[in-house]
Amino acid sequence: MNDDSLITLPYKDGKVTVLKGSRIKVYTQRGSIKGFLLGFDESGITVLEPRNYLGFDFHYSEDIKGKKRKIPLKQLGGFAFYPEVSFLQTNEKENDKHE
Q1: Which of 49, 62, 71, 92 could connect to 35 by a Cys-Cys bridge, CB 3.0–4.6 Å?
Q2: CA 33 to CA 1: how far, in whole Å?
Q3: CB-based contact 52:34 (threshold 8 Å)
Q4: What whole-number distance in Å separates Cα of residue 20 and Cα of residue 3?
Q5: What is the pTM of this model?
């Protein structure tokens, strides 16, 4: 696994790291967006919102068609991952790691 396949986001008092393509639900001021996490940087979070939610299964594939959406941080109300997503959480205060 290379660094391009991992995405780190701020989470509570620390950070969370997940695989690129993890299923995520992003909450915005206008509602929520279900999709696959493609990226995160200081300007916002990038999600691929699939055209067909019947195909929104547990595995991301580059063959999935949809709209790539960039949600600016100022519009981001939060996010949640689906149960099958494994993540590594780091608490910056204690430098502890949890899975």
Answers
A1: 49
A2: 27
A3: no
A4: 10
A5: 0.82
Residue among 25, 6, 7 at smallest CA distance from 77: 25
> Strand 76-81's sheet: what is its strand order?
66-72, 44-50, 31-41, 23-28, 76-81
Rounded-to-integer distance, Cα 99 and Cα 82, Å: 15
User: Which tokens is 25 given?
Assistant: 């639900």
Query: What are 18-71's pLDDT values in tens digits?
Result: 999 999 999 998 899 999 999 999 999 999 999 887 767 767 888 888 999 999
Tokens 């068609």, located at residue:
65
What are the DSSP calls for 6-24, one per residue? EEEEEETTEEEEEETT-EE
